[in-house]
Structures are given as C-alpha cells and as structure tokens.
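Narrative progress, year one. The postdoctoral researcher (J.K.) led the effort to move from monomer predictions toward full complexes, under supervision of the PI. The following entry was the first complex the group processed end to end, covering 835 residues in total.
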Amino acid sequence: MQGANRPSGTTARWVMLLLSLGILLHPQAQAGTVVGTVKYLGKPPTPRKAAISQDTEICGTEKQSAYLVVGPDQGIQWAVVQIADLTGAKSSAEPPVVDQKGCDFAPRVVIVRPGEEVAILNSDGILHNVHTRSKENPAVNKAQPGFVKRMPLTFKHAEVIRLKCDVHGWMTGWIMVTDSPHASVTDGAGSFRLSDVPAGTHQLTTWHEKLGEQSQEITVVDGQESRVVFEFSRE
Amino acid sequence: MSSGRERGRVCTRASLVVLLSLGLVILAACSQASRHKTLKFFFDGVPDPADPAAGKTSEPPAPELPVVLQPVAPGRTPPAIPSDRSLTPLPALESVAPIETLGGWKAALAALPTDYAGGVDWVQAVDDGLITPRLLSPTGGPPALPFSLDTLARVASEQPDLPVLSLDIDLVPEQRPFFSVRFPHASHTTWLGCASCHPDAGSMRTEKMDSIFAGESCGKCHGKVAFEPEIACARCHERLAPGDESTVEAELSRAREVPLPSSGDLLARGQELYGTYCEFCHGEQGDGDGRLTPWLKTRPRDFTAGKYKFRTTIGTAPPTDTDLFRTITRGVPGTSMPAWQALPPEDRWALVHFIKTFTDRFDNEEPGEPITVPEPPEMTEELLATGREMYSQAGCNSCHGETGGGDGPAADSLVDDRGEPIRPFNFASGRPLKSGSTPADVYRVIMTGLAGTPMPGFGEVLPPETAWALTGYVGSLSGTARQPFAVRGDIPFDRKEFPPETEMEIRARAIEPPTAAELAEDELFLLAGKDIPPAMFPHGIHRIRFKCSSCHESIFKMKAGANPVTMTAMRRGEFCASCHDGNLAWQVAFTTCVQCHAER
C-alpha cells in the first residue's frame, strides 16, 4: 500500500509544481490532464513459477513470470502510455534509475529521453551484465560486477530497448527511449496520469512488452481531465 | 513329459538364482580395485590407485626403450607433409615402446600428439614411432606377431597387406587453385588397403566439400574416426595453414601502423576475392548463410549484422580495420575459419573493406578507439592470488565455473544474440582460444567482451593491473582438466538397440541355440543392465595397434547399427570377443565389465 501511495503523491506534487510553474511562466498556455487505465480483457494467464538454483541467497529460490502483470480491475502494469505527436523537454526532472535487486530489474520498465543518462544500479552486489537488445542504438554488453554499484548508460535514438542479464537468464527489463514530453508507465492498477498536456487533439499510444501497441486520438481541454481506457485482449 | 519340463523349469530357476547372486557379488567386485587388477593383468606399469607413489616408482618392464614419449603441447604448428616420404620405414616390433606401458589407455591417449585443431594426430604418432598400427615385419612379409593373433593373422592372409605407398597426389581445383590439396597416400596406406578407398580399379573421385561433410569420399572416415575436416581445413589445404606467431605478429604490427585505406580499386578487388574465397561459408549476401554453412558447427560471421566478436574497441564501437585484418590473417582456431596469411596483405585489406560494405554500421557509428594492452606485469604469486580472488569477485565463475570448466551455474541458460544456446569457454580443456591464446589476447577479450555473445566487456570497471591478475589466473586454469575419455571416433553402444536375438535369428545364422545357463546369464545381464552405463568402444586405443582392416569388415561392418553386439554374441566369440578371448586380449567376462561399461 505504501508503495502504491508514493508515486501518486509524487505525481501530485509534481502536478502542483508544474501547474504553478506553468501559470508563472506561460499564463496563456492551455493545458489539461490525461488520466486512464490500460486493461486486459479476459482471464489473465496464471503466472508461472520457476525454481532457480543460482545465487539463491540473493536471488531467492523461485521466480514468477512477470511478462504480463494484471492487477485488480484487469489493470495491466508496466505498460507505457505517451503522447506520440509531441516532442520536447520532459515534464518530470527525476533522473531515470534501474536497480538490480533480488536479481530483477526494478522498475521493470523505465522511460528515458534520447541522450539522457539512465543509471543502472547493482544493489545485489554480485555480477550482473547489462546486455541490451536494440535496433537503432548500438548494443551494449557491459559487465557490472558486485563492486560496481552504478553504471550510467545513454541512448541516442528513440526506441524500445530490451535489457537482459545473461548471468541470470530470467532477468528482463525494458528501457523506453522516447522524446515525448508526456510519457508514463502504468502502475499496479494499470492506471496512468499525464499532466500538463497542451490542449488540443493528440495521438495517445500505449506499448506493452507482450501485448504490443495501440493508439487512439484524444482531445485535451484546458483545465480538464480527460479519461482514456486502452483495452488489450488475448487476440 | 510334463515332469521333465517342470524339472527343467526348476533347474532354470535354481541356476538363475545362483547366477544372480554370483553376478551381484561380481558386480560388487567391479570396483576400482578389481579394475586395477584387470588393468594390471594386461598392461604393465599401471599405477595402483591406492598408492599414489606406485605409478612413479614402478619401472616399466623394458627400461632400454628407445622411444621417449613426450606429451606434445597443443597448438603446435601443423606437421608439414613431406613430399619425399621414404618408403615403409616400419619399426621392428621389439624396438617399439608399447605405449600401453604408460599406464592404461587414458595415459596412452594423453601421450599422443595433437594437431593444431586439438585432435589426436595419428599420422604424426605413426611417424614418431609411438604407435604401430601395422603388426607386420619390417619387410612387409608374413605377420611377425609377438603373440598368438589368430584372428588378425587370418585377416592378414585374406587380404595381404601391401607396403605403405609413398605417393603424394596434388589435387588442384580448376576454379580455385588456391585450395590445392596434397593427398598423402603414405599416411592413408598405413591404415587402409587400396580396396578400402578404391573399390574398383582406378575408381576415385574428388568430391566437393559439401559431399565430404555429408560423409562421401574423404568424409567416410574424416569427421568420424579421423580428424574433422570442418575445423582442420589446413590439414588438407596447405595454404590455409596458420603462420608462425612471429611472422603474424610482424604483419599485424605493420597493419596497425599503416592500415591500407579503402579505395574504389580495393573494393572491386575485395568483391572479386570474396566470391572466390569467402562466399561459400559467409554467403553471397554476407549473412553467414553460405552453401557450406549447414555443415559447420560454428556459424560463419553474419556481416550484415555488423557485430564482431574479436575487437580492440571497447563498449559498443565497431571494430577497427586492423581488427578485421587480424582475424582474416590468423583465422579463428577451433572453428572453420582458416588463416588467410597466404593471401598477399593487399588482398586481405581488400577483403576488410569489402566485408564492411555489408552493413551501414561502419558509416553510421563513430570508429572505436582501440584499447591499448599495456606491458604485462611480472606474474607473481601475489598477483595470481589477486586474480583468483577477482575471478569470483567479478563473477567469472558464474559462467566459466569455479575451476574454469565452462560449467558455472549460468552456463546452461546462456544464449547468443540470435537466441541460439551458447556455452562459456572451458579454460580447463586447454583448447586454443578463438581470439588467440596469448596473455595479451586474453586481456583484450576480458576488456572488450565478445559482441553478440553473453561475454560482457570489463574494460570500464577493471583497472589494468587487476585485469592482468585475472588474465594470469585464467591462464593458470588452462589445460587443468582431466583428459577426456572419448577421442574422435569413439562409438557408444546403447544395448537397447540390440535386444537379445530371437530364436529365428539364431537359427538363420545356423549356430547353436543358447543353453539354459546362457539364457539365465542373459537374464542377469538385462537385470544388471539398467544400472550399468552403456559400453563405449574406444576407437582411439585400438588404432594404436591395429589397422582399420584388422577389424573391418571381417569382424565389424562399417555401418551404423549393422553390428548386433550383444553379450550373447560375445560369448560365442563374435565381435569384440574375436580378440578379447583371454588369450589375445582380456576376456569379455563379468570380471572385466568396467573395461567397456566404464563411467566416462
């Protein structure tokens, strides 16, 4: 519960800050908020469990598949929602971070801007190797032994990059490199919130590692909250 | 009538019980001790496993042996094929050191020379007088055998052995004379008779590599009991032999100083050369999908992906031109990529620039800054200890294993960028490293990683001193593995393939049906069978003493599955028991089970 509260609190604080900044700097700007959920229709697959026998004192003895996490009310976690037709400075100034903790990438999905530094941490204190699978950006395969706590990476081109650790084959993470100023990862309930979106008609897209992409046209009205629902089904 | 049958059944049952208990006792006795006893009975100088000093102190029975057996270090230069091979210098039997005196087949095999690809070099072993596959008198006359070899004598009389034929034949492909092959009759007739290869007078065709890989022509033996053509190109194609280290190094340092820049002429030349030398493995499109690719264990590089394993550039940068020049010049040991040093340097540069055109990576990405490999520090005990510590701290053991055997906890789950399973390198095997086996080579790979594989680069996280310590430790792991049991051509026998013969089969062969006792014994074999590992026929150890024709085709047909080798058949003196009769070689019996059904 604590975990669920924190991001929305942070978001709220940022919304406040940005709104006041927006009012101060651009009193004429017209902006609204987009909130919504990404949902899964039908019965979600039962997560598979697999026993592991490697570095068990750190990784544990069992891992549960996390390629599709469906929460209460069919909300899909770890989907990226973004306004696809806008580019510009990011609304959030928080530097992106991916930790390797308990032999999992945390968070599983992170949003990074082209050229922005993403810090790969190693809380586990054992060898992980940061191995990316990408098309536009050169592949990276750097060792991060236990004594290297922080390894910065940057990517020039916008694309979805898969993050793997070969030493722990189950570890999978995603880096969404995007130059959209309004992008967010869905939480455990599948919901997202994009603040300070300029009023007007926009293309809103969502991406999920297993379910693919969807997009829809939305209209943002000044000072109002637009509600959007994305629905993925097994087909 | 019925009481007789009953009595018979009781008898069978009683003998079964007796044999069963006897069998269990004998099985229990198939221990290290009994195995040693058996070995000692047939081979002199077998070290007693209970006494580690025994092997060192016990003198071989013939102290005046003229041949000193020296294990030959792997990675030596390939033997040049002498063009004027002298005729039949068969050593007199009594002057030859019985290689078995080394203490069993493992030590015997370990003492045989290896070729540059890491396999046993049988030809060199004959040349060095280490082995005597032709049990004949030096004059080529009737067999002068030191002991009763009825079977072999019979084989020899049926097909009189010919002297070794000293005739080299140059096979020059019309289209690509570069790939000329000198076929040495001499090293083949040491093992084979004329008819083994020439079933009809004069019939001999040279085959394309596809057919050889598919098991035709040379491929009938090569890749099975003789060296693998796939990874030992230079053993036939002499111009593909790796050059000696000093000339390679001289050329490479020149290439580092003055790389030849690309030009229109050079690219055109490169394209032409590519079609002649590279295309059949790397493919017309450069995607690593050539005509021969399906036969190769290591997939040729896909130039369109633009990922190169062997680089001096760190991180994500593409390789330098000199990196590519280096790989072309020295090849990739242990794979089908030969050394192309026989091509003039200009031609190799032309190929470098041409293969770069298969991807736009070299145009779009910054050329990498090559790492410099600093002078290695003196490898002290302290530095090695640091290396050992770093080996587990840096997590090398996760994949390469605690003792460098390539068997770390992550080893089984690794995949390459194509999603194909890939094994971490087994340092303990002592096999040559693909990117070179010198300390500088190991240092470089630790720092840069191997693109396209799980091996990451440590260049950003290890200071040079630490990397050298690690290099030293990895080097100290090399070749520490026990000699593998199997050499090329060993044949596993799974007894499930050969169920006991049916009555009809036995009648068809017009031999005596098995007695009740034999049947009971079979029963026992079947009962015991599920706990006993399948037999492995060690081709290697038999090649030390016998020619191919000693056993083929009179005893064993040369066709998979054509020899129903069962314990029943052995009991009648067939197959292995033709020689393993207690007279010529140790007897196939319950007391000798571990000889064949040994754990590997």
